């Protein structure tokens, strides 16, 4: 789809997004209800929300199947995530072979609008999650999304924010934008029982793209 629809944005705003913090191997259904809603508490990297130049052309819809972030050693497959039966946004399962998940009501990477990918920071007794070091990214770091059609969408980080889960910037993350952008989300900050107090959000903009057969 192109930019996130008002209906999908409303669903996110109402149910909110708590990226699972992986306190235990068995996911706690209540964790998905400890929500996130609106406005920034936290910290931004220098150059946050800067605009890479030149801007890359947008891509046709193609579901992401992989994600590489060389600066923090991420190379993971990507699954689809929708809404759970209770209306909350799904999170990847807490398991030994952790992977990231793309929220399927957001644009695919490279389409105009904010494409949203989330993953765990820890996965219980299994150890570190895919996005364990997400907060170490800095403006200009590269992110590559591998697409189902064989193409690749490449992004540059424009900002990194740490926000209290009770003050989640829903509009900044899910609100429509006029260029292809990417949002990566995980947990962060101090531990609070089985979870974490904050969310870490990476903002990135498309810098280049290749279709199948162009690489």
TrEMBL record:
Q: What is this protein called?
A: Class F sortase
Q: Which organism is it from?
A: Streptomyces vulcanius
Arranged from A to Z, the UniProt key words for this protein are: Hydrolase, Signal
Q: Where is this region: Disordered?
A: 25-56
Q: Which domain of life is it from?
A: Bacteria
Q: Which residues form the signal peptide?
A: 1-26
Do you know which Pfam families this protein is assigned to? Sortase (PF04203)
């Amino acid at each position: 789809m192109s930019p996130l629809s008002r209906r999908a944005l409303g669903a996110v705003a109402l149910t909110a997004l708590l990226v699972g913090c992986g306190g235990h191997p068995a996911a706690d259904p209540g964790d998905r209800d400890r929500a996130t809603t609106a406005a920034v508490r936290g910290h931004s990297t220098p150059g946050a929300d800067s605009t890479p130049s030149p801007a890359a052309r947008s891509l046709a819809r193609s579901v992401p199947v992989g994600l590489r972030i060389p600066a923090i050693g991420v190379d993971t497959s990507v699954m689809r995530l929708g809404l759970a039966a209770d209306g909350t946004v799904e999170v990847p399962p807490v398991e030994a072979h952790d992977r990231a998940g793309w929220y399927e009501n957001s644009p695919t990477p490279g389409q105009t609008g904010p494409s949203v990918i989330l993953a765990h920071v820890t996965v219980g007794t299994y150890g570190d999650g895919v996005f364990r070091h997400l907060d170490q990214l800095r403006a200009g770091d590269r992110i590559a999304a591998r697409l189902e059609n064989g193409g690749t969408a490449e992004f540059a980080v424009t900002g990194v924010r740490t926000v209290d889960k009770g003050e989640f910037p829903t509009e900044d993350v899910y609100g429509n934008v006029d260029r292809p952008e990417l949002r990566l989300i995980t947990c962060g900050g101090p531990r609070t029982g089985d979870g974490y107090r904050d969310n870490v959000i990476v903002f990135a903009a498309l810098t280049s793209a290749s279709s199948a057969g162009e690489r």
